[in-house]
Write a structure and sequence with these properties.
heterodimer, A: 456 residues, alpha/beta, Aspartate Aminotransferase, domain 1, Aspartate Aminotransferase, domain 2, 3 domains, seven-stranded mixed sheet, 15 strands, B: 477 residues, three-stranded antiparallel sheet, 16 helices, globular, binds pyridoxal-5'-phosphate
């Protein structure tokens, strides 16, 4: 019956075929199928008025797999191979091989949202375990199984603050050092809600309770605090901040990530109502911004949570089994009154994050996080020895990164370092920011040498 | 008839099937760290501590308890679950692709070139003048597109007045939700008896308040909106914009383009049309294309080519950002590779085979299909049966069932989209599964599924008494 396949498959792989290499039909199949539906040709199946038919060309030539691989490799090869000491909200840690090998199993990768839980228990359980990981890390009761990224998660938490009854205000306060990208996304997310985004002053990202209190009033719906800050500092007054915000009836959202949360005070213990952040620091890394929005909150907001939630239930045989739950919050049921428009999410990245965390285990996570404190502290001390460099800019406890003030012109310094093969951030007219983790620490000595040379 | 039994790992003593990681081990470590003050660190961390071989087996078993496209047909209507070519995974995994988003533009020329090429090819495929790749999924593309429409009307001094977005009742839930998120009142447009837009209803719905009409074409019944040009005129005459939901673009590839039909804004659903894997729910990507007139409102930054170099440029009246970086970059690489692999001829063949497959499959099943002529998908009715029960029983035949109970215009809807990537043999199997279930007695159907890793799962109690983490499970125990 499939006598034709040998020949046709062989021609298809050369890329010269006139058809899709991924449509398995032989000509004989097409004939039989057309007969079955009483059609002369495939063309006549298209009920499209001739006035809107397209008979032009896109000008895209078909290519063999080998050619495409070569082309893409060639194009991507135009990226410089700099050693990155970049952070400011996006971080690389070594991702164990096991993560790729397991997450790439095609039963996971090629499946979709678990609308039929009986046949997708595996992914549901993995997502349930991911949610559990975040519950442990944050101390909050609820975590969803993903948002697109930290910026959209921040947008979602802002609109949530407007829906919960315990909060009445309409101002969303964000730190003055918040990344522009996050601020810009937040502005768009609240554009349909009557919320105004405002900055509060910080000292290099560190929140001073008094300064925050000055801008607090009964109109504040949400205060967003990052720990660690965009500038790499660990917050020191979170408990006090939590108390102030509770008094002001404002929601308290903390921005963090799973590695930092393995070591730092749990958000629940300082009174945070919600946590957002980039969870892909485990499992994926910076990936030019492909990410995983972490979203966790208190149980009292459960019915207002955006995105998908996996819950444990039972199947007919009495076994525990998992299913998407509380779906009446979601767009496919609630439509314009849904808690969010999100449908396709970042589930596969969550799977990767869960596997990475499992490989590290609790000891590995804590060690990784301790390293995130030791490495920048050590590197800052070394740089501080160099004439013309003062590091860190601010005393305090650092996590993964720190700022350094430099005497030479920052733009020149950064581009000269770049010429030496190192990428660092230029943060303002006289400071740079450097991020060091297990992913680049082996190059730290070379960076120090390069800075020494450039500054000299 | 195909038989299939999904893996079941059922350990004695475990309440569930494959035990949770936390049931295999729970280790509490004291978080002692002398280099930070005590009040800055947590006290303990309690998580499973398992060896690599144990973890490998855990997730391998979980994968066996999961069903993907590579396991069998997955005709989930509106989702375009087609084969995901493996080479695209390899190109996306290249180390040169894994750069930090804050790298200066001169150091990521390769990335920006690929972005630019993809912007261009998507523009041509959709007949749109400018494309942004930033939205991380289809719904995010809708939100972005509606924000663009809003910015455009505001710029024309009509921001206040144009407060409504019209959405046909058969549209996907995200259309309604995205418009509402952008601050619009949603006006629901009932369909006509043929399952298409009712022009009269549309004429009376549009007006000075109309900001946009969101439309899927072919619509969710698989029908082409034949009056599309008239629809465009009605909306445009009222001063509104026409938005195209690209979920169903697979049906039109190379044969008709939203831009030529009068759409001003569209999103591409690359995890559908361009075969990037759905990853158990995501990530996808939802680039949007717009007309020249709307180009200045696109999110920032756009990638532009100047003298052989690629630059990041902020459009003049940009709406700002809809994602913290440049969208789901890894997914975009796969999209680019897929489009290059297929080229014009492959893209055109894709729509041909997708439509042929849907028509052929429909002809082989013994259920009523009330609306036609359909294209890449059709909506059958489970008739007297509950569509959800019907779907559960299909699982026992080793196939993924269609989307159920939507669109609501078909009672007990089974929305079926086989895609171009299934062979005639597989379609015959799939038809066999439909027909077997259709002919089975009530009791057999009600007892389903029997061949899946888990049996019928109680959704109601999951929602009534939520257990969302292993902590919640042990609190209850
Ligand atoms: C018709 C339609 N529109 C929009 C969407 C939303 O796309 P996404 O899930 O990528 O956000 C979907 C699919 O989920 C859809 O089927």
């Amino acid at each position: 019956m499939s006598h034709h396949t040998q020949l046709s498959r062989a021609t298809r792989t050369t890329g010269e075929s006139t058809g899709s290499p991924f449509a398995p039909h032989s000509e004989a199949d097409v004939e039989t199928m057309l007969q079955a539906i009483d059609a002369e040709s495939v063309e006549e199946l298209f009920d499209i008025p001739s006035s809107v038919r397209f008979d032009g060309e896109f000008g895209i030539d078909a290519a063999s797999e080998q050619e495409v691989v070569r082309q893409v490799a060639e194009v991507l090869g135009r990226n410089d191979s700099a050693t990155e000491f970049l952070g400011r909200g996006r971080y690389d840690h070594y991702v164990p091989s096991l993560v790729d090998h397991l997450a790439d199993r095609s039963e996971f990768l090629t499946s979709y949202t678990q609308y039929q839980p009986e046949i997708t228990q595996g992914f549901l359980q993995a997502l349930f375990e991911y949610q559990s990981l975040l519950v442990e890390l944050t101390g909050l009761e609820v975590a969803n199984c993903s948002m697109y990224d930290a910026a959209t998660a921040l947008g979602e938490v802002a609109t949530l603050s407007q829906r919960v009854r315990s909060v009445t205000g309409d101002r969303v306060l964000v730190p003055d050092v918040l990344r522009d990208e996050r601020r810009a996304v937040l502005e768009n997310y609240v554009s349909g809600a009557s919320l105004a985004v405002e900055e509060y002053p910080t000292t290099d990202g560190v929140v001073e309770p008094d300064a925050l209190e000055d801008v607090l009033d009964g109109d504040v719906a949400l205060v967003y605090v990052e720990n660690p800050t965009t500038t790499g500092l660990i917050q020191e007054h979170l408990e006090e901040i939590g108390e102030h915000l509770a008094e002001a009836d404002a929601m308290f959202c903390l921005g963090s990530d799973p590695v930092a949360l393995s070591l730092l005070r749990t958000p629940a213990s300082i009174g945070a109502d919600a946590v957002i952040g980039d969870a892909s620091v485990l499992g994926l890394g910076t990936a030019y911004g492909t990410s995983l929005g972490l979203f966790a909150c208190k149980e009292e907001y459960l019915r207002q949570v955006p995105g998908r939630l996996v819950g444990a239930s039972q199947d007919e045989s009495g076994h525990r089994a998992y299913t998407l739950t509380l779906q009446t919050r979601e767009q496919h049921i609630r439509r314009e009154r849904a808690t969010s428009n999100i449908c396709t999410n970042q589930a596969w990245v969550a799977l990767r994050t869960a596997i990475h965390a499992a490989v590290l285990g609790p000891d590995g996570l804590v060690d990784l996080a301790k390293n995130c404190h030791r490495l920048p502290e050590a590197l800052a001390r070394e740089l501080d020895e160099i004439e013309g460099i003062a590091a860190p800019v601010r005393d305090g406890y650092h996590f993964r990164e720190f700022r350094a003030s430099v005497e030479p012109d920052v733009a020149d310094l950064v581009s000269e370092l770049y010429a030496e093969g190192f990428a660092v951030h230029a943060t303002d007219a006289d400071t740079i920011q450097i991020c060091v983790t297990d992913a680049n620490e082996n190059q730290a000595e070379e960076l120090v040498a390069a800075i020494e040379e450039v500054v000299a | 008839m195909q038989r299939h039994e999904q893996a079941v790992w059922d350990e004695t003593g475990s309440e569930g099937y494959e035990p949770l990681l936390s049931e295999k081990d729970r280790t509490t470590v004291d978080v002692d760290y002398e280099e930070l003050p005590d009040d800055l660190t947590r006290e303990t961390l309690e998580l499973p501590a398992l060896s690599e071989p144990e973890i490998a087996r855990h997730y391998t078993r979980l994968s066996q308890m999961n069903y993907g496209i590579d396991s069998g047909p997955y005709p989930l209507g509106s989702c375009t679950m087609k084969y995901n070519p493996k080479f695209t995974e390899d190109v996306a995994a290249r180390t040169e692709a894994a750069v930090h988003p804050d790298r200066p533009e001169e150091s990521v020329q390769g990335t920006l070139q690929l972005y630019h090429e993809l912007q261009e090819s998507l523009g041509r495929i959709g007949g749109m003048d400018a494309v942004t790749l930033q939205p991380p999924a289809g719904a995010a593309g809708e939100f972005t597109g509606i924000l663009v429409a809003k910015a455009y009307h505001e710029r024309n001094g009509e921001g206040e007045r144009r407060s409504e977005v019209i959405v046909p009742s058969s549209a996907h839930g995200t259309n309604f939700a995205s418009a509402a998120m952008a601050g619009y009142d949603v006006v629901e447009l009932p369909g006509d008896d043929d399952g298409r837009i009712d022009l009269e209803a549309l004429r009376s719905a549009v007006g000075e308040e109309t900001a946009a009409l969101m439309l899927t074409n072919p619509n969710t019944l698989g029908l082409f909106e034949r009056d599309i040009e008239e629809i465009a005129t009605v909306v445009h005459d009222a001063g509104g914009l026409l938005y195209y939901d690209g979920a169903n673009l697979n049906a039109l590839l190379g044969r008709a383009r939203p831009g030529d039909m009068g759409f001003d804004i569209m999103h591409y659903n690359v995890h559908k049309t361009f075969a990037t894997p759905h990853g158990g729910g995501g990530p996808g990507a939802g680039p949007i294309g717009v007309t020249e007139e709307l180009r200045p409102f696109l999110p920032s930054p756009q990638v532009e080519a100047r003298d052989g170099r690629y630059e990041l440029v902020e459009p003049e009246h940009s709406i700002g950002k809809v994602h913290g970086a440049m969208g789901n970059w890894l997914v975009l690489i796969k999209t680019h590779a897929y489009i290059r692999r297929l080229g014009d001829s492959g893209l055109r063949d894709t729509s041909a085979k997708a439509v042929l497959n849907a028509n052929y499959l429909a002809s082989q099943i013994d259920l009523e299909i009330p609306f036609g002529p359909f294209h890449h998908e059709f909506v059958a009715s489970a008739g007297e049966r509950d569509a959800a029960d019907f779907a559960k029983r299909m699982l026992d035949y080793g196939v993924h069932p269609p989307t159920t109970k939507w669109p609501e215009i078909v009672s007990e809807a089974l929305m079926t989209e086989p895609t171009e990537a299934e062979s005639k043999t597989t379609l015959d199997q799939l038809a066999g599964a439909f027909n077997a279930v259709a002919s089975e007695d009530e009791e057999t159907v009600a007892a389903a599924p029997e061949k899946t890793s888990a049996r019928y799962i109680d959704q109601t109690s999951a929602a009534r008494n939520p257990h969302l983490s292993w902590h919640a499970l042990s609190d209850d125990a």
